[in-house]
Design a protein that fits this description.
The protein is α+β, with helices and mostly antiparallel strands. It has a domain of about 120 residues: 60s Ribosomal Protein L30, Chain: A (2-Layer Sandwich), CATH 3.30.1330.60. About 45% of the residues lie in helices and about 15% in strands. Strands 1-4-2-3 form a four-stranded mixed beta sheet. Strand 2, helix 4 and strand 3 form a beta-alpha-beta unit. The longest helix has 26 residues.
């Protein structure tokens, strides 16, 4: 009986060590993740991971939220300046795509806020297209009042946000 238990413990120990060794060798295959890099889940094991150069290209694409006045979808001058930098970065990175999400504060009906969020996202998209970004690289979505940035500060909720991804990620269904 003790021999059988001893064999089971040794077998379990060897299997556990083999699994740990296999995991540690594959975890060091690529560059270590950085704290500032957004984590993107892999849904398709056959899709190739983004190279370090592609990841750096995505990290270089950042944008602060674009704020709007109450009941407005008009771009402020400072928003236009920020979007010019984004457009330039997108033109230099042909694999990058962007999603513009429109948001509103809680004032107004749900239907009105969805429509206003859509107008805000559409105006940002139109401005990026006017600056030379291909339209097929820009997706838009409206969340209306559903995703507030700060429930205590309505001005921070009247915004459009940009999120970036690689074309390969979009094809693999990651984002």
């Amino acid at each position: 009986m003790t021999r059988t238990l001893l064999c089971l413990f040794l077998t379990a120990g060897l299997v556990g060590c083999a699994s740990r060794a296999a995991n540690s060798s594959t975890s060091h295959a690529g560059p270590p993740p950085t704290a500032s890099a957004p984590a993107t889940p892999r849904h398709d094991d056959s899709s190739r991971p983004a190279s370090g150069e592609e990841t750096e290209a995505l990290l270089a694409l950042t944008s602060a939220p674009i704020y709007f006045s109450l009941d407005s979808a008009t771009l402020a001058p400072e928003a236009r300046d920020g979007l010019e930098h984004v457009a330039q970065a997108l033109r230099q990175r042909s694999l990058a795509k962007v999603t513009v999400s429109g948001h509103t504060c809680e004032l107004g009906t749900t239907e009105y806020n969805i429509a206003l969020g859509q107008r805000r996202a559409d105006i940002v998209r139109a401005y990026l297209v006017r600056l030379g970004v291909e339209p097929q690289r820009i997706a838009v979505v409206s969340y209306g009042e559903e995703r507030p940035a700060d429930v205590n500060t309505p001005e921070k909720n009247r915004r459009a946000e940009l999120s970036f991804r690689l074309a390969e990620q979009a094809r693999a269904g990651e984002l």
